[in-house]
Amino acid sequence: MKRTKSVSRKTQETDIRLDLCVDGKGDARIQTPVPFLDHMLTLLAKHGFFDLKVEAQGDTEVDYHHTVEDIGICLGLAFKGALGDKRGIRRFGEASVPMTDALASVVADWSGRSHLVYRAGFPSSRVGDMDVELFEEFFRAFSNNAGLDLHVHLLYGSNVHHSIEAIFKAAARALDMASQIDPRQPGVQSTKGSLDP
Questions:
Q1: What DSSP element (H or E) covers 149?
Q2: Distance CA 4, CA 23 (A)
């Protein structure tokens, strides 16, 4: 049975509908008012073999912050719901991915304990019309709502687009690895018998 979850979130700032299949093929249908985030979410789905559909509206006339953060919240809740009690999953995943001049490393643990370490310095504060600081907010919202211990490191990169793309591709591969079913593990990968906080 495929692991899936749909999440809806509507506030005075955003209106989001997100559908996730962890056991997918990498199909993405992303439609938000933040084009560069659409591109990154498409990469996340493709390289993580997740099927992902996102439809979002937000108060982008203010800025992109609320929309980006709330999409991170919904994605985290979707993963948390799709993985359930995390029985049989590998739990840990890691990946290092290059993108031309950039190299990023991401390590993930579906521990049930939310934590983000985000170490990324960019040569510019913007990519297109988007503030790059919003990607830290995205990953924090995702981690907090997924119950995920997530460590994101940009080792180097001279082009901001390439740098962020390397981070998302590495995140995709790490999340894919961590969420895969390990046939050797009939229960949960924890000595305490639970992957809850």
A1: strand 149-156
A2: 8
Nearest CA-CA partner of 147 in 95, 182, 92, 109 = 109
Question: What is the gyration radius of the CA atoms in the chain, in angstroms?
Answer: 16
Distance between CA atoms of 79 and 70, rounded to whole angstroms? 14
SS3 content of the chain, % helix, strand, coil (to 5): 35, 30, 35
pTM of the model: 0.95
Q: Which residues contact 116 (CB under 8 A, 6 or more apart)?
A: 136, 139, 140, 143, 144, 150, 151, 152
Residue 128, φ and ψ in degrees, nearest 5: 60, -125
H or E segment and range at residue 167: helix 160-179
The tens digit of pLDDT for each residue in 19-63 reads 999 999 999 999 999 999 999 999 999 999 999 999 999 999 999
Give the model's pLDDT for residue 47. Answer: 98
Query: With 80 as the cut, is the pLDDT of residue 94 above it?
Result: yes
Report which secondary-structure segment, H or E, holds 116: strand 115-119
CA dist., res. 84 & res. 195, Å (int):
10
Q: In 49-111, which ranges are continuous DSSP H helix?
A: 65-83
